[in-house]
Each structure stands twice: as structure tokens, then as C-alpha cells.
Amino acid sequence: MKVVILAGGFGTRISEESHLKPKPMVEIGEKPILWHIMKYYSAYGFHDFIICCGYKQHVIKEWFADYYLHNSDVTFDLASNKMEVHNNYSEPWRVTLVDTGLNTMTGGRIKRIEPYVKGETFMMTYGDGVCNVDLDALVKFHKSHGKTATITTVNIGQVKGVLDIDQDNNITSFREKDDSDGSLINGGFMVLNPEIFQYLDGDETVFEKEPMQRLAAEGQLKSFYHDGFWQCMDTQREMKKLEELWQSGKAPWKIWDK
Fold first, then answer.
1. 56-72 pLDDT per residue, tens
2. 176: β partners
3. End-to-end CA distance of the chain
4. Rounded to whole angstroms, how far apart are CA atoms 232 and 188?
């Protein structure tokens, strides 16, 4: 199953870092948060990634092009113009980097990668959040109900979309969050059937608005509740929190060395 990651936004709320690079390339433990997300999926056996690029896309493309340089010891022989890579470390990943436009909205970015999905069910998440969601259980749940979309829901006070959920885990409505809410929110880490593209229009489509609302109204949106760790990185404070967790050696999303 392919994994689609939205990595094209401007990241204005963490502008101290993102004016130099896309937010998914902001580093935690000297590695982009995008790398952390991919390592998490890969630990569950998901190795085929489609990255929706936009703002400063060249930074993401160049980082992957030089991946082995970032992760290996290298000797440069300038006299002979040769390079020797030592202890070359690579990932079992296939990474497709797609230019989905500078100002394209989230739904438009997903729509643009339709040719790369090729009619298959796929996973999708945002390029600025990590968690310890059980991805195997998430996929199993999605396959069990037969609806178009499953979204991981978390109960954390963030400025995200608010969900009303019935006793059968159907998401019955989707709206923007306000300060008085304590409801379950959109945590990303979704599974989407190819029918999702029927809910997406052009570049101006915001996935979290009309498409989500329509899916909910039609009974095609299911909730997979996650009560474990989940953290997005919208601000410098959140970035510092993730860095502290990583440096402590107790980062809940680091499961690949266990």
C-alpha cells in the first residue's frame, strides 16, 4: 500500500524555520520530520511513498537525491575528482516526489497524485506530525467497514477539524474547531479508497472542508480512535517538545530500532 504525505504547505506558524525550507524538512534530532514519519511507516512495512511537494520543493528533492551523503561517511579525492562512500546506508524506500503546485490546497494536492496511486487504496498523512498509531490495526479497521475513508482521531486541544462521531465510529459531521471545543480532532494518518478522488475538484479544493463534510454526510467517513501519543509541529514550542523527546531517547514514534 502506498503512503501519500502532504509536504507542500508554507508552514507560516513556524516561520522561524520554514522561511528557509518546507516545514516537513524542519529537523528533529538532525533529521527532517518527514524522515521520522517515513521511518514510522516503514517500520510497519510500508515503503512506497508519494510526497506532495510545493513550497521550496527543490529542498526536498535535493535531500533525497543526496540521501546517502547525509547518512554515510564520504571521502572526496579532489585531485582525481572521485568520491568514495563508506558504510553506505540506504532505506528500503521507493519515493516519488510530485510537484503539486505552490499555492495548491490540500485536496488539490491529493487530486494531483491520482495517476501515481493507480486506482489503489492508499494511506495519507500530513508532513508535520508524528504519533504511535497502530498502523496494522488502522488498515485492518479500514478494510473491515468498506467505507471510502478512515481518519485517525485524537482528543487533543489543537486548531484542527472537529468531528462528531456516533457509536458505530461513523463521522457524522466535520467542521473547523473553535476555542470552546474539547472534541475529537483530525489526527491525519488516514486510509483512503480510490473513490476519494470523486470528492476532489481542482487546486482550490481544501480536503478538510467540503470533501470531508460531504464524506461525513454520505456516511463514507469512519473514525479510528487513537488514545496514545500524537503531536503535530505547528510552532517553535511544539518543535522544541519533539526535539526534547527525541534527545531523551523516549520518543514514542521511534519504533524502528526496537
1. 999 999 999 988 888 88
2. 161
3. 23
4. 10
